[in-house]
Amino acid sequence: MKTNALALKLLSALMAIAVVLGMFAVMPQVTSAVSDNATIDLSENWLGNADRTTFWATWEYTQSTHTLYVYDNVTVIGTVAGAAKTLNIRIDSGKKVAWKANYSGNTNSYMIRATSKGTLEISTGGSVKNNGSGAAVGSTVDDANITVSGGTVSSGGAAIYY
Q1: Would you state the pLDDT for residue 102?
Q2: How many domains is the chain partitioned into structurally?
């Protein structure tokens, strides 16, 4: 009888292990909450007049400032024409914004201002145009990483200003 009780306990333990392992097999694979394919679509009014937060970015809107805080690699797409205020982009160090959007307007300051040391890349298909006298893209941070890789940057003033 002692052997049967021991065998029953062993069998019960093995069944419990099998159930737990089976649960892992049917669970969806969980990866980072942040995706390499994180996208901000300006055409969907992502930069509207209300604050917005995701795992990879936060949009903060006030009457005087418009700031996009980026925590991971993102791609920006879509179109905004007639922007009248500077778009501040704060990109975490080591992260990149691939700017594939078309963004234009008229300001005497920057159209887009990088306010941190992450990378802002104006990529193929993307453009930033300032019809005013200010810069199209610029930074107020030493060692800012702004690159143009197939995109277009133009202005009545400086195209890129550091």
Answers
A1: 96
A2: 1
